[in-house]
Amino acid sequence: MISQLFSLQGKTALVTGASRGLGQSIAIGLAAAGAKVICSSSRENGCEETVNRILAAGHEAASYSSDLSDEVSVRQLADTVLEEYGTIDILVNVGGTIYRSPAVDFPYEQWTNVMKVNVDASFILAQLLAPSMMAKGQGKIINIASMLSYSGGMTVPAYTASKHAIAGVTKALANEWAVNNIQVNAIAPGYFRTDNTQALQDDETRNAEIEKRIPAGRWGEPEDLVGAAVFLASKASDYMNGHIMAVDGGWLAR
């Protein structure tokens, strides 16, 4: 029974931002649990490595490209995967971006871009894919929140606003769609070694402060999110709705 609870056999998942980092690890993890995984990135053939790794392991995967800052492109992605696969059982909104600048100098065009990629695209995909989930009477939507869903951070006002928004949208959609047996939840990663945090990793003083604050004593690696993602994508989480799951090495506890 336990293996059935966590099995994704027969499920089809769409993972954005699957070319590298957190998205790549989550896509590979869902495939290992039995899902057919549709990998999306902003670059044409950007998910080639991810797809090849999944196929080499004997699982199913496909690749699409979509510019998450472009509403038309995001809608085309949803239309394409629904036409090709009929329904998506699991949506994982990983694709995101960050821009660092003191708030007083923060370029408005960068604010707009961060919000489009991090919030608008996630909402649009959820909105467009939810009806097919409702028709089947089941579905899983997993958003990627952040430690900055809880705090303000420094020099990342747009990213902070977007991650607070993702936490709120997750709860709002869960309130409406739980009755349709669609579980909408989010994962809030702590400090993980990804492109988005490279500036912090390269800052010796800030890097030391971060490691000292984390009870686990280390940065997270992308593979550390796989268990949480499989859990939230599987039957094991059928009674979880609107939850923001911190995977942070204990950062919030400290």
How would you characterize this protein structure?
With 254 residues, the protein is an alpha/beta fold. It contains nine helices and seven strands; from the N terminus they run H-E-H-E-H-E-H-E-H-E-H-E-H-H-H-E. Strands 3-2-1-4-5-6-7 form a seven-stranded parallel sheet, sandwiched between helices. Strand 2, helix 3 and strand 3 form a beta-alpha-beta unit. Helix 5 packs parallel to helix 6. The longest helix has 29 residues. The termini are far apart. 43% of the residues are buried.
Distinctive features:
254 residues; alpha/beta; seven-stranded parallel sheet; 7 strands; 15% strand
SSE ordering: HEHEHEHEHEHEHHHE
First and last CA, distance: 36 Å
Whole-number radius of gyration?
17 Å
Percent of residues in beta strands: 5-15%
Q: How would you classify the helix and strand content by structural class?
A: alpha/beta
| Average pLDDT over all residues | 96
Count of DSSP E strands?
A: 7
Low-confidence stretches: none
Described by the principal axes of the CA atoms, the overall outline is globular
How many distinct helices? 9
